[in-house]
TrEMBL record:
Protein name as annotated: Cytochrome C oxidase subunit IV family protein
Organism name: Paenibacillus sepulcri
Primary localization class, coarse: membrane
Membrane-topology descriptor: Multi-pass membrane protein
InterPro entries in the record: Cyt_c_oxidase_su4_prok (IPR005171), Cytochrome_c_oxidase_bac_sub4 (IPR050968)
Subcellular location: Cell membrane
Lineage, uppermost ranks: Bacteria, Bacillati, Bacillota, Bacilli, Bacillales
Membrane spanning residue stretches: 24-44, 50-70, 82-104
Length: 105
């Protein structure tokens, strides 16, 4: 392959190389989410419940961006890591809920 070729060969299959454009957009979006979160907390005049909800929502968006663009989980062949991550999230949430339930009683 020449350096001018825009395809990547993996396991005998060829697919188009994305290039840096999507990574730059994802990086800017991640920085923007971080600045918005910091600004909301620093303002101090916004309702606390709204801030918590927005911070969790922006954290979920941040995780999706990180997993999709930086860890390439959006590509084919990543089903086992995705299932493993989802199972880990399920186990952690179960542990947290059970700990809350145990502490409550």
């Amino acid at each position: 392959m020449s350096s001018q070729d825009t395809t990547v060969e993996e396991h005998g299959k060829r697919h188009k190389h994305e290039g840096p454009q999507k990574h730059i957009v994802a990086f800017i979006f991640s920085i923007l989410l971080t600045v918005i979160a910091f600004s909301m907390v620093a303002a101090g005049e916004i309702n606390g419940t709204f801030i918590y909800i927005m911070l969790v929502f922006m954290a979920i968006l941040q995780v999706i961006i990180q997993m999709s663009f930086w860890m390439h989980m959006k590509d084919r062949g990543h089903i086992f890591p995705i299932v493993g991550i989802l199972m880990g999230v399920f186990v952690v949430f179960t542990i947290v809920i059970m700990a809350e339930y145990w502490a409550w009683w």
